[in-house]
Amino acid sequence: MALVNLGFGGDRKIESGSHICAVYDNRSQLMDILVPFIACGLDNRELCVVVGDDALMADVRRALSERGMNPDRYVIGEQLLFLTAIDHYYAESRFNVERLVRAVDDLMELVISQGFQSARVAGDNTPVMDHIVQSLGDWVQYEARLNVGLRGKSVVALCIYNQRRTPGQVMTTMLKTHPLVVMDGVIHENPFYQEPDQLLGGLPAPGEIT
Known about the structure:
It comes from candidate division KD3-62 bacterium DG_56. It is a single chain. The protein is an alpha/beta fold. The protein contains nine helices and nine strands. Strands 5-4-6-7-3-8-9 form a seven-stranded mixed beta sheet, with helices on both faces. A two-stranded antiparallel ribbon has the order 1-2. Strand 1 and strand 2 (13-15) form a beta hairpin. The longest helix has 18 residues, at 97-114. The radius of gyration is 16 Å and the shape is globular.
């Protein structure tokens, strides 16, 4: 697989198909990860997707403009997509693991049809944290299965968690589903990661636990 420059974390490159968990304490740390990640993808003619709330989308637009980039041009050219977290994860008012895992294939079809090199997705899960707490089992299924869905694909997924807003049990559990983790802007191999088969072996199917 091709090696990808994330735009932060020094000179280290990671493989396409990677699934990364980034943890932040404050808005500044979030933007220091998210904005370089997206800007680097736009420069490399990658399809870039940002999932979050309206405030985050406005901040990303502003930060890109401050870098001399025109976010509207990328949006109009369908290279930069903004999705609200609640609409993305809870379309039709439900969390559908199968639909969300299939979304990787849908994204790859869009990459090919639009002539992009690859894709990168960044999602700040803070806006749906209450939902995650209430249906943690389903979220574990999704995050773990995403590792399988990403394999061999020309895409990098960056899942972002606010350490101050994420309960300890949720944070500990989510760390098990990401092979790589970003702490203080540095990329690390995640010692807590568990392969999907190992992690999901003792879990019921989606929707069976909350």
